[in-house]
């Protein structure tokens, strides 16, 4: 049977690992969403950042080759209102 101190250490290690994973995912999303290629492709950038597990460089590569979103200008106008 394991002692409370050992269990507490395992729990702390698990929480630290969870925090690290969250930080890595936030960094990944930030890199995708702030990529120069995300400009005028915001909907695709959000989809790639939030709805996929693709690596950052794959997402940026897709954004680089994707056509400009024809609704991007409309979205910017709607936000200004």
Share in β-strands = under 5%
Distance between the termini: 63 Å
Number of extended strands: 0
Query: Which structural class fits the helix and strand makeup?
Result: mainly alpha
Give the tally of structural domains. 1
Largest sheet: none
Taken from the alpha-carbon principal axes, the silhouette is: rod-shaped
Low-confidence stretches: none
Helix and strand succession?
A: HHHH
Radius of gyration: 19 Å
- Kindly state the percentage of residues in helix: over 70%
Report the average pLDDT across residues. 88
**Total of helices:** 4
Short description:
This protein has 81 residues and is an all-alpha fold. Helices cover 73% and strands 0% of the residues. α1 (4-33) packs parallel to α3 and α2 (42-51) runs antiparallel to α3.
Question: Care to describe what's here?
Answer:
The chain is an all-alpha fold. Helices cover 73% and strands 0% of the residues. It is built from 4 helices and no strands. Helix 1 runs antiparallel to helix 2, helix 1 packs parallel to helix 3 and helix 2 packs antiparallel against helix 3. The model has no long low-confidence stretch (mean pLDDT 88).
